[in-house]
Amino acid sequence: MSYGNRFATDSEYLPELRRLIVDGRVRLDFDAKHLRGMDSPVAVEAETGRWAYAMVIVVALAFWWQGWQGGLAAGVVMAALYLTLGRRRMADNLRKRIMDKALIDIGIWRKLWRHGGVSLQHQSEGAAPCRAPGDSWIRFTDDALKETS
User: Could you give the CA distance from residue 82 to residue 51 in angstroms, rounded to a whole number?
Assistant: First the structure.
């Protein structure tokens, strides 16, 4: 099945899309909250679990060592760490999995695009974003390749 002018299949477009992103000509945006769900092809549920276990352990140790005031203080500190550093770290890990797995394996990329929460944006002014799952990433990639030719 022909999708555009350059390649015959979507698996031939995927490395080109990755190259455009790496070269900075296309920006990849994603909704980290949407992609952290258990049905996301790039989510790792254990990642959230690690943060939860760490919070419980630190709060329990602080409660044991300093009583309820220490436990409460540790809970506040751990919640603040999760909301600032933890979420940012998980978003960075999602971006890495998208780049290192989804943009390498066409099967994972197809699942991710159908799942949604991902968008592509030309770096040129006035270009409309391409949003999953409704827009065609193949057409978007083909247009981006035409612009760079």
Answer: 7
